[in-house]
Write a structure and sequence with these properties.
Elements: H1 2-15, E1 28-36, E2 41-45, E3 63-65, E4 74-76, E5 85-91, E6 93-95, H2 104-107, E7 111-113, E8 119-121, E9 134-137, E10 144-152, E11 158-167, E12 174-187, E13 190-194, E14 196-202, E15 206-211, E16 220-229, E17 238-239, E18 247-248, E19 252-256, E20 265-269, E21 275-284, H3 291-294, H4 305-313, E22 325-337, E23 340-343, E24 347-348, E25 356-361, E26 374-379, E27 383-387, E28 394-399, H5 416-419, E29 432-436, H6 450-456, H7 459-492
Parallel strand pairs: 2-29
Antiparallel strand pairs: 1-28, 1-29, 2-27, 3-28, 4-27, 5-16, 6-9, 7-8, 9-15, 10-14, 10-16, 11-12, 11-15, 12-13, 17-26, 18-19, 19-25, 20-24, 20-26, 21-22, 21-25, 22-23
Helix pairs in contact: 1-7
């Protein structure tokens, strides 16, 4: 009878243990991977949220496992791709004749394609007046289009809303982003200009710029295109949630960034209308890294061509104070202009990892408004290529806690030349797409009160005591039931 009693107790204790994640090894968390295509190689863009969950911010603890729980070989894509080549060039610009309208079929009446694919003006257009659309010939630009820098006629003042479209044949057009603003203003003895538009790394032969208000437009005089040539197509940026300042002092506000996130772009959201301020964007490294983080290798930041181009044009930028890394100088603004608002554009960053960003104003921090602004940062997700070795389903796994004496190795990743025998850094990797979706984590609870902290300080020990008490009670009950059954059987005899 005692043997059966202890067997029942052991089964009850086993039922009380939490279930381990599918395919995860001890100390690992995981998420399922879905495959698209026949493989055998797949590329997987990692969600930005993974940085805050993995034990190591360099993701050395990453593993991809098959249905048997065995790790499959993988390699990092961006770290080995050939360095992209950036370029800037002025491109042909044409004002669409007033009688041609905005329809691409009508535009062909005044333009034709040369044998090399560029545009040729068939008949002279009347001088551009008013808000005429503009055709931009980017057929001779090699690689991906990063941004267009517009030049306007002298004396242009105002805020002009417009939309961009892209085409390869002047007949089928697709939108490029949403509504943009061309800004050329003077405010408080400062000149405000927003003449560049981010093109997001698209590939196209022609662009069309159309003003949102048919009665108001600017006279363009030239367009310069910044581009980049890279073997691998650019991965879309992923933006964080709005981040409030951690603290503000007399001339700056500091913002705590998501853990381990490589910051490539910064968006500043001013709370108050008619606000303008000149500021510096500074990166704040961790002043006292922990022994675990100090052992981690420093990965080369994912190259941000826009940041490199802008730093090259701003070679006279002064050095930052000790403990700060100067990333950008900018004028941020939010100005009411009739029925619209002029807002400052996003700021390109270097793609490195900073625990905090600092916004320092040229004057009191109140220049940013009565309510400090929120920020959002964007990152380009890192991409792995893995071999679907073994049977699906496959899972993405990472460690939930760091090892105290971890070696400064880069993890299980292989060089792509080892993973893919025919690999070339100058050619795109032939791989199908894989997707992973991380479960939504509950937000971190607010700091507990002193009473709650005291009540939960020894919670593991208390939980253990309650567990043993419950098991002991169960044993007593089972023993009592057995004794009662034995007694009744004895009486029956």
């Amino acid at each position: 009878m005692n043997r059966h009693t202890f067997s029942l107790a052991a089964a009850a204790a086993a039922l009380m243990l939490p279930a381990a994640p599918l395919h995860a090894q001890s100390g690992e968390a995981g998420a399922p991977i879905s495959l698209q295509g026949a493989g055998p190689y797949y590329r997987l863009a990692l969600p930005a949220a993974l940085y805050g969950r993995a034990a190591y911010t360099d993701l050395r603890d990453l593993r991809i496992r098959n249905a048997s729980g065995n790790a499959v070989p993988y390699g990092w894509l961006q770290e080995e791709a050939a360095m992209p080549h950036s370029a800037s060039q002025k491109v042909p610009l044409f004002a669409v004749p007033a009688n041609a309208g905005a329809a691409p079929s009508d535009a062909l009446l005044s333009f034709q394609l040369r044998s090399d694919g560029s545009l040729q003006l068939v008949k002279p257009a009347a001088p551009a007046t008013g808000a005429v659309p503009w055709l931009i010939d980017v057929s001779h630009v090699r690689g991906n289009l990063l941004q267009a820098r517009l030049e306007v006629a002298a004396g242009t003042r105002g805020v002009f809303a417009y939309r961009l479209e892209a085409s390869n044949d002047l007949r089928s057009w697709r939108p490029v982003g949403g509504e943009e603003q061309l800004v050329k203003l003077s405010h408080n003895n400062q000149n405000l200009e927003r003449l560049a538009v981010d093109l997001g790394g698209l590939r196209a032969r022609f662009l069309r710029l159309s003003w949102s208000d048919p009665a108001q437009g600017a006279q363009l005089t030239a367009v310069n295109i910044d581009s980049v040539e890279a073997a691998e197509a650019a991965v879309p940026q992923e933006w964080s949630e709005a981040i409030r300042p951690e603290r503000c002092e007399a001339s700056h506000c500091d913002y705590l960034l998501p853990r381990g996130l490589p910051a490539r772009s910064l968006r500043i959201a001013l709370a108050d209308t008619n606000t303008l301020a000149q500021l510096e964007v500074l990166g704040l490294p961790d002043p006292a890294p922990t022994p675990t983080s100090a052992a981690q290798p420093v990965l080369r930041p994912l190259h941000n061509p826009l940041y490199a181009l802008r730093r090259h044009r701003d070679a006279t930028r002064p050095t930052a104070a000790p403990g700060e890394i100067r990333l950008a100088d900018s004028v941020v603004y939010r100005l009411a202009q009739g029925s619209t608002e002029a807002r400052s554009p996003d700021i390109a960053l270097d793609g490195a990892v900073y625990p905090r960003l600092r916004l320092r104003t040229a004057g009191p921090v109140a220049l940013l408004g009565a309510t400090p602004p929120t920020i959002a940062v964007a990152t380009t997700p890192r991409t792995v290529v893995f071999l679907a070795q073994g049977q699906p389903p496959f899972t993405l796994n990472w460690k939930t806690s760091a090892e105290p004496n971890a070696a400064p190795a880069s993890g299980a990743a292989l060089p792509l030349s080892t993973l893919i025998p025919a690999y070339s850094s100058n050619k795109p990797v032939a791989a199908d797409t894989a997707l992973v979706s991380l479960a939504v984590q509950a937000p971190a609870p607010a700091a507990p009160s002193a009473v709650a902290a005291a009540a939960t300080a020894d919670s593991p020990a208390k939980r253990s005591a309650w567990l043993w008490a419950a098991l002991g009670t169960g044993l007593l009950l089972l023993g009592g039931m057995a004794w009662s059954l034995f007694a009744s059987m004895k009486k029956g005899v």
